[in-house]
Design brief:
The chain is mostly helical. It contains 21 helices and 2 strands. It has 3 domains: 38 residues, CD2-Gal4 (Irregular), CATH 4.10.240; 189 residues, no CATH class; 122 residues. Helices cover 56% and strands 1% of the residues. Strand 1 and strand 2 form a beta hairpin.
Length: 425
């Protein structure tokens, strides 16, 4: 009996072999390692490993670097999925926050409704596949109503047409549309959860690689903004659904998603001249909450009082917390009295855009007062728990905060727990 010859190349890099991925064998760094900013090593003929230069990221001029030092300090090594779960899942992370900015794959997470069958996802492999019937199903399944459930129905219909028209011209957008469709179907069809989650990971990784390889100009500025917005929402979905690790790990992922949201805001601002002359203008107007609106409700009065009384925060820290609370109160005002043409829950999805850098720093340092503010955000999320993107995230976050802070902080959390128990009043 003759042994069949080995048709696969044995010359791939060590990292791709470890992750069981198809390596394109590019030197000094292969495409996979370049995309996810991993150290790329090849074994030479003598069996020793040769390390490629990993210092230069794949860059894109379309996503601007957040200007603050806080953002610049949040490197992929610090804020991406560096926890045990990312390495076990073989799933790379996403960050817009280095100079110049780069795009990386966001962490794929466990669904609160459908605990992830990790082995099934990994065993499926990470190799690229030709376009198939599944891809067609995912492309047809995409809609702005799915991606932005808080979007007005008429705008969602218009937006879907715009996205699909741009996706035909810009493959990176098409692949990300398919990726978020797969993420949605993983929730809708729990019996095929692992299959669709794997599709989501693969398609998103491919989309980001395409985006990084694309020359961006006015001709694809609309597609670039749409891609960034969809990728941003996709990343938030993953963060809210992820149950891996402890609450400290969740905070790292959440802060990372805030930096991403701020990066997306920069993209919108830079592309605004072209966008204001495009069909996206109505959606842009809808998607921009007025940050200077005066609050009218009293849902956060107790939180404001506690912040003013604490001696553990300096004036800068207190002001950062007050700004974070201001937008929480705006959100609760919207829930109580929705603005015509606006979603009552819009700020729940974009709260991170308006958080001061100082507040993000407090979260990163695990300052208890800032963590307690997150409890009010959990109560806000609980108001939109019926959407596929949120689910039981509010309950999970609030219970995790309570355990993290301990009983001595129970008086800070009384109101959020009352919302989960009795509803918003």
């Amino acid at each position: 009996m003759h042994r069949r010859g080995h048709r696969k190349s044995r010359n791939g890099c060590i990292e791709c072999k470890r992750r069981h991925m198809k390596c394109d064998e590019s030197r000094p760094r292969c495409a996979n390692c370049t995309t996810v900013q991993r150290i790329c090593e090849y074994a030479d003929s003598q069996g020793s490993a040769r390390k490629a230069d990993a210092a230069s990221p794949v860059t894109s001029s379309a996503v601007a670097t957040p200007a603050s030092p806080e953002h610049a300090a949040s490197t992929p090594a610090e804020t991406s999925e560096t926890t045990r779960s990312a390495e076990e899942n073989g799933t790379p992370a996403f960050s817009p926050a280095s100079a110049p900015s780069q795009l990386q794959t966001p962490p794929q997470s466990s669904s609160p409704q459908n605990p992830r069958n990790r082995s099934a996802v990994l065993d499926a492999g990470d190799h690229d596949e030709p376009v198939n019937v599944t891809h067609a199903e995912l492309a047809l399944h995409f809609s702005m109503a799915t991606m932005l459930p808080e979007l007005d129905a008429n705008l969602a219909e218009t937006g879907t047409k715009i996205v699909k028209g741009e996706a035909v011209k810009s493959p990176f957008l098409l692949y990300e549309c398919m990726a978020i469709s797969a993420r949605h179907l993983s929730i809708l069809r729990p019996e095929r959860y692992s299959f669709f989650l794997r599709q989501s990971v693969q398609l998103q990784t491919r989309a980001i690689a395409m985006y990084n390889a694309t020359t961006l100009d006015e001709s694809n500025s609309v597609a670039s903004v749409l891609f960034s917005a969809i990728l941003n929402r996709h990343a938030l979905v993953d963060v809210l659904a992820n149950r891996d690790g402890d609450f400290s790990s969740f905070l790292d992922r959440f802060v990372h998603s805030i930096l991403l949201q701020k990066g997306i805001r920069v993209v919108f601002n830079e592309a605004s001249p072209q966008l204001l002359e495009s069909e996206l203008q109505p959606i842009m107007n809808w998607a921009t909450p007025d940050r200077d609106t005066v609050t009218v409700g009293h849902h956060c009065d107790e939180l404001r009082r506690l912040i003013s009384l604490t001696s553990a925060l300096d004036p800068v820290g207190k002001e950062a917390c007050r700004r974070a609370v201001h937008f929480l109160q705006l959100a609760f005002d919207n829930v109580a009295n929705p603005t015509p043409g606006k979603s009552a829950y819009q700020i729940a999805y974009v709260w991170g855009i308006y958080l001061p850098d100082e507040f993000c720093a407090l979260l990163k340092s695990r300052k208890p007062e800032a963590v307690a503010v997150m409890a009010w955000y959990a109560a806000l999320l609980h108001q939109s728990r019926n959407t596929w993107q949120v689910g039981d995230a509010g309950v999970f976050i609030l219970n995790s905060i309570s355990e993290f802070l301990g009983p001595e902080w129970a008086h800070w959390l009384e109101w959020p727990f009352s919302v989960l128990r009795d509803g918003l009043r």
